[in-house]
Write a structure and sequence with these properties.
Elements (H helix, E strand, L loop, with lengths): L9 H9 L8 E2 L6 E6 L7 E9 L6 E6 L5 H10 L4 H7 L4 E5 L3 H9 L12 E4 L1 H6 L11 H12 L6 E4 L6 H13 L4 E5 L1 E2 L14 E2 L2 H14 L6 E6 L8 H13 L4 E4 L7 H13 L5 E3 L9 H6 L4 E4 L2 H20 L12 H7 L7
Parallel strand pairs: 5-6, 5-14, 6-7, 7-8, 8-11, 11-12, 12-13, 13-14
Antiparallel strand pairs: 1-2, 2-3, 3-4, 9-10
Helix pairs in contact: 7-8, 8-9, 9-10
C-alpha cells in the first residue's frame, strides 16, 4: 500500500477528505457506491450542485477525487481536493512551497488541525500531522524515554488516521536495533503513515531539548547508515519515506562533521534529512540547510523550530527547507488550558468562571464524526 493513503469507503472519503476542506458544505444529498452528490455554499449568490466521484485502487490504496463545478473557481476547488488525496511524497512533488506539519496527539486534535484555517488567508491550512514521542509519552504521564513502545504508538496513530486524511510523519526515536527498525518500517507503512524519522543517537532515549548535552551519545556513522539501509530494504513501496534526524548540532558537533554524517545517511538511502537544534538563534540551522541544499538538492530538508520560534516560513524556505514541524504545540496548549480551567473553577467555586477558557459544547459536536453542527 502507498504511504499516507488508506483503502476507505466512498462515504468515508466524503466525510473525512472533502468535508474538512469545505466547511461551507451544507449537506450530503446521497451516498452511492460510485458517486455522491452534495450541495455546496461555495457561491453564496447561487447554490451549486457538485458530483464527486471516487476511484479507489485496491492495488496501492490511493484515492482519486474529481469534482466538476460550473464555476470560475473550479480549478481551485479541484486543487484543494487533490491535496487531501496525497501522501507526503506527492505533496513534496506538487510544488516547492514549505509544507507545515502540526503535532497531533489524538483523533480530536487531528480534527482541529484539519479544519483550522488562517484568518488572513482562508485557503491556507496545515499540510500534515506529526506524531511526537514526547507528546505520546506525556499524554500517558510517562517520560520521553521510549517507554511507550512503537507498537503502541502505531496502534494509536491508526486511530488518528481513521478520522484524518492528512499525511502523518512519525517520530521513531532512535529506531531501536536494526531488526526492530525494520519491523517498525513495515508496521508504519502498512498503517498508512507517510514517513518515519529516526535520530542518529544510541543508548537510553533522552529528549534532545534537555539542557545537559552530555546525556546524548551519537551513533556510529556507519552503524546508523546500515540501519537506514536495512529500513529501506524493508519498505514495500518507494512512496514511504525514511528520514534521518541529524543530532550533531544538539551535541555540539562541528558543522562539517554534521554534513559528513548527512552525506553518509543519504548514500545509505535516507529519503529526507531533519536538521535538529536547540539553539535560540536559527542562523546555524539555516546555514546547514543552505549547505545541504547545495550538496543534496533532491533531498527534502525538515526543520523543527521549537527553540527558535521567531524564524519565519519564508526564511526556512529560502534556506532550502521543504517541511516545518510544529513539534509539541497542540499538547502544550491543551496543558495550559486545562490548568487555567482547573484554577478558575477552584478559585470561583463555579463553572461560570471557567467558561471563557472552554470551547462551546456545540463545537465538540460539530467536530465529532457524524455530529451535528451549529
Amino acid at each position: 500500500m502507498s504511504s499516507g493513503a488508506r483503502c476507505i469507503s466512498p462515504r468515508d472519503t466524503l466525510q473525512h477528505r472533502i468535508g474538512p476542506v469545505f466547511p461551507e458544505i451544507q449537506g450530503l444529498m446521497t451516498h452511492q457506491t460510485g458517486s455522491s452528490t452534495l450541495t455546496s455554499g461555495l457561491d453564496r449568490r447561487a447554490r451549486l450542485s457538485a458530483t464527486v466521484t471516487h476511484d479507489i485502487s485496491r492495488r496501492n490504496g490511493l484515492i482519486t477525487v474529481s469534482i466538476e463545478l460550473g464555476h470560475e473557481g473550479a480549478k481551485m476547488v479541484q486543487a484543494r481536493l487533490a491535496r487531501y488525496s496525497m501522501g507526503l511524497r506527492e505533496l513534496l512533488d506538487e510544488s516547492p512551497r514549505l509544507l507545515r506539519f502540526m503535532e497531533c496527539h489524538s483523533p480530536l486534535a487531528a480534527m482541529v488541525i484539519e479544519t483550522s484555517r488562517s484568518e488572513t488567508h482562508p485557503e491556507a491550512g496545515f499540510d500534515g500531522l506529526w506524531s511526537s514521542s514526547l507528546t505520546d509519552s506525556s499524554l500517558r504521564g510517562l517520560p520521553d524515554q521510549e517507554i511507550v513502545s512503537m507498537y503502541e504508538r502505531v496502534v494509536f496513530a491508526r486511530e488518528i488516521l481513521a478520522v484524518s486524511a492528512l499525511p502523518m510523519i512519525m517520530d521513531g526515536d532512535t529506531g531501536g536495533t536494526v531488526e526492530q527498525f525494520m519491523d517498525t518500517v513495515r508496521r508504519t507503512e502498512r498503517s498508512g503513515i507517510s514517513a518515519i524519522v529516526i535520530e542518529d543517537k544510541v543508548g537510553t532515549k533522552q529528549n534532545s531539548l534537555l539542557a545537559d548535552s552530555s546525556v546524548h551519545v551519537l551513533a556510529d556513522q556507519d552503524d546508523f547508515a546500515r540501519k537506514i539501509q536495512k529500513g529501506v530494504e524493508a519498505k514495500a513501496h518507494p512512496q514511504f519515506m525514511i528520514v534521518a534526524r541529524l543530532e550533531g548540532l544538539i551535541v555540539g558537533l562541528p558543522v562539517e562533521e554534521v554534513l559528513q554524517r548527512a552525506a553518509a545517511f543519504v548514500a545509505a538511502g535516507a529519503d529526507a534529512l531533519l536538521v535538529h537544534s536547540k539553539a535560540r538563534d536559527p542562523r546555524e540551522v539555516l546555514d546547514v540547510g543552505r549547505r545541504l541544499r547545495e550538496t543534496h538538492p533532491d533531498i527534502p530538508l525538515i526543520a523543527v523550530p521549537t527553540t527558535y520560534p521567531s524564524v519565519t516560513d519564508e526564511e526556512l524556505r529560502e534556506a532550502g527547507f521543504r517541511i516545518v514541524i510544529y513539534a509539541n504545540h497542540m499538547l502544550r496548549a491543551s496543558v495550559r488550558a486545562m490548568a487555567q480551567v482547573s484554577t478558575a473553577i477552584l478559585t470561583g467555586a463555579t463553572l461560570e468562571a471557567a467558561e471563557p477558557f472552554c470551547a462551546p459544547v456545540e463545537d465538540l459536536l460539530a467536530l465529532s464524526v457524524g455530529g451535528t453542527s451549529r
